[in-house]
Amino acid sequence: MLESKLKKIDNELKFIFYPSNNYSDISSNAPIIISKKMKVSIDTSFEMIKNKLLEKSDTELQTFNNEKTSTEHNHRNLYKYIEKAWLQNGFLNINVSDNFIISGLNNVLDDSFLEVEKKGLNVNLEYVSANPTGPLHYGNSRSVYGDSLARVLRFLGYDVLTEYYINDAGAQTITLAHSVFEEYKKISLSNKDELKNYTDLNPNKGLEILYKGQYIIDIAQKIFKNDGDIWLSKDYIEHFKKIAIYDVLQIIKKDLLSVGIEHQSWVTESSVQEKAIEAIEILRSKGLVYEGILDEKKSSKGKEYKQKLQIFASKKLGDDEDRALTKHDGARTYFANDIGYFYDKIQRKFDWLIVILGADHDSYAKRLSYAVKSLEDVKLTIKTCQMVTFKSGEEVIKLSKRSGNALSLRETVNNIGKDIFRFSMLSKNLDSHLSIDIDKIKEFSTNNPFFYIQHAYGRIASSLKNFTYSKENLYKEENNLNDDKDKVNCKTNGTSGSEIIKESILLDELGGEINSIDDFTNSMKQMSKTILEWRRIIESLSRNLEVHRISIYLNKIAENFHVLWTEGKENESSKFLHSNERLKLILCARKIIRKSLDLLGIEAYEEF
RNA sequence: GCGCUCUUAGCUCAGCUGGAUAGAGCGACGGCCUUCUAAGCCGUAGGUCGUAGGUUCGAACCCUACAGAGCGUGCCA
Question: Which pLDDT does position A70 carry in this prediction?
Fold first, then answer.
C-alpha cells in the first residue's frame, strides 16, 4: 500500500548520497513530499520512512530513487549501516557508519567504482564543423568541450562517433577560390603592367570580401608551382576550390590536434546532395514543403527576386518564418543540404544525435530541429556555446577572420599551453559568455586553479613514492607495463628512466583493501565523501552534458587533499608515510583525479 | 522590432534537472615552513543573486513584465 503510493510520487523524491551541503551522509526530501501527498504530518511521514528503512533492505529506496545510485556505490543492505536518522527542516537525514564509507572506498581500490557497463547506444557527436575557409581562430576555442564530452559519454558506456561536417559546396568556398586566385594572379603576373591590364574571366568577381592570410598565399604558390600561369586564361574556380579546401582542411586538422582533438568522421556537404533531395521529398509528403515566394522584407538584403522557391513550412511547426530550401538560381540552400546531412545521420541509425553549434548559429538550431524531428523522431540535442572573448589587460582582442589578422587558435594554444588552455575552457558552462584575460591564464603561477589540482596530484605521487622507497621489494617486482591506468611512475634518483610499479602491487604492500580506519578524522571523511560523490556527478553529465562540472569537482577533491597534507605537516602521525589508511585513501583520490583529468583530456603530471 | 544566451562578492566564474546557512579563485588584510612538493594550509573583510511581481511547504534556479550586455535576425554558411 505504502509502496504503491510511493511509486506514484517517484520523480519528486530525492535521495542524495553525500550531498555537498554536508548536512548528513544521505539526505532526502521524502518527509516533505510524502506528508503532502498522503496528507499526514511531516513527523508522521518521517516516522513511516524511518521504520521502513530500518526494517528492510534498501531495495525500496532504490525503486523510489530516479538516479541509479546502485552503480554509484555499493549500498545493498543499507539498513545495516544506518547509524542515525533524523528529521531536520523537513528533510530526512541519515548518517551511515564508517563501514559504509569504507566499503565504498574499497570499490574504488578494486576499480569497480570506475567501471561502467556498455549501454549499447550509438551517439553521433558533431562539433566544430567550421567552414573550411581558413585556419581556426580563437573563436573556436570552446571546441574542446565537444572532445571532452565524447570522452565522458564513452566512459559512461555510449558508443560515440565524433564528426565534422565540411561545408564544401557553398558560396563561401567560391569566395575562397577567388581569394586564392587573387594571390595567384600576383604571383603569375609579377610585371605590374601585366597585372594592371589583366581582366578576370569571372564576372561575379569583386562582389565579395576576400579572405586574406598567409595560408591563401601558400596555396596560390603551390598551384603556381605545379601549373604555372595556365589558370590565368581558364575557369579556375572548381580547381582552386578543390585544392584550397583540401589544404585548409589540413590546416584545420592540425589546429584541432594542437588542442587534442581528432574527429573520427568527416562528412562533406557535397556528399549529401542526394540525401537532401530525398529528405525534402519526405518533408513534402508530410505537407511541409511548398513552392512560393517569401516575404519581401525577409528576402535578401537589397535584392528582390521573383522566382518561386522551395520553401520549408517551418512556421507551421513553431518557427518565426518559413525557410527557403532553394535559392533564386535554383541551387539548394545551406539549410536544405543540412537537412540532407541529418537525414544521412538518421539513416546511419544513431540512437542519439548531439550537435554543438556556435552562438552565431543558435537561431538556426530551431529550424534545424523542426526539420530533423519532422523526418524522424530521433533523440536530438543541440547545444549552443556562447562566445569567448579574450582580453589582454583592458584591451579586448578583436576577431576578424577575413582581414587575416584574427588570433589563430593554434597561436592562442601555443601561447598558454594545451592543458591549461583546455582546463580554462572546460571550467566554465557553455552557456556563459566567457571573458578570458590572456595574460592571466598565460601566467605559469599559483594564480591558476589548474596548478592547484596538478599540485595535489603531484603531492599524491610524491607521497606514494616515499612509501615505495621504504619498501625495497616493490622495486624488485617486474611486471607487464602495458596497462597505463595501473602505473605509478617512480623516478628514482640517479637511475636511468623511471621505474614503474603497479597500483595493485602497491595496494598489496599497503595490506590490501581497507578493513577499518582507526583514526578516521573529519578531513579523511570529507575526502572519502568527495571521492564517493564522483560517480553521481559524472553520471549526471549524460543528462546535462555539462562537462565543466568535472573541473569544479577536481577543485574540490584537490582542496580536500591539500587539507590532509597539511595535517601531516602539523602532526607527525598524520603523515601519509605513517598511515597505511591515509595512503589507501589518497590512492583512491589519485585514481579519481587521474580519471577526471583524463575525461577532460588533460595530462596528469607527477612532477613539474 | 523579434529570437537565443547571459546579469550572483571589486574582477573572472561555480551553484549538482526548486531544497535546508548562496560558494571558489584572483585582488585586499592578518596568521602558519629546520625535510612526506609553502605551486600549500588557516583566518578576516566583501553579496537586497539586474529590478518588480507571481507559482510553491521552499526560488539564484520555474512563469510574467521591465532594464542592461552579447550573438543572431539573408534566397551567406
Answer: 37
Is the Cβ–Cβ distance between A261 and A143 less than 8 Å?
yes
Whether the per-residue pLDDT at A155 is higher than 50: the answer is yes
CATH number at residue A532: 1.10.730
Positions of strand B less than 7 angstroms from a protein CB: 2-7, 12-17, 19-21, 24-27, 36-42, 57, 69-77
What is the tens place of the pLDDT at every residue in A552-580?
999 999 999 999 999 988 888 888 988 89
Q: Which of A337, A310, A306, A340 is nearest to A326 (CA)?
A: A310
DSSP line for A257-304: HHTT---SEEEEGGGGHHHHHHHHHHHHHTT-EEEE---GGGSSTT--
End-to-end CA distance of chain A: 61
In a domain, A473, yes or no: yes
Q: Is the pLDDT of residue A360 over 60?
A: yes
Q: Give nearest nucleotide to A32 (CA–C1').
A: B57
3-state secondary structure of A507: helix
- Domain of A569, in residue numbers: 449-600
DSSP-derived letter for residue A157 is T
Convert the pLDDT of each residue in A390-413 to its tens digit: 887 667 776 555 445 567 899 888
User: What is the mean pLDDT of the segment spanning A480-509?
Assistant: 54
Q: Is A315 (CB) below 7 Å from strand B?
A: no
Where is the domain boundary, A96, A117, A141? A96
Is the minimum distance from the CB of A204 to strand B below 7 Å? no
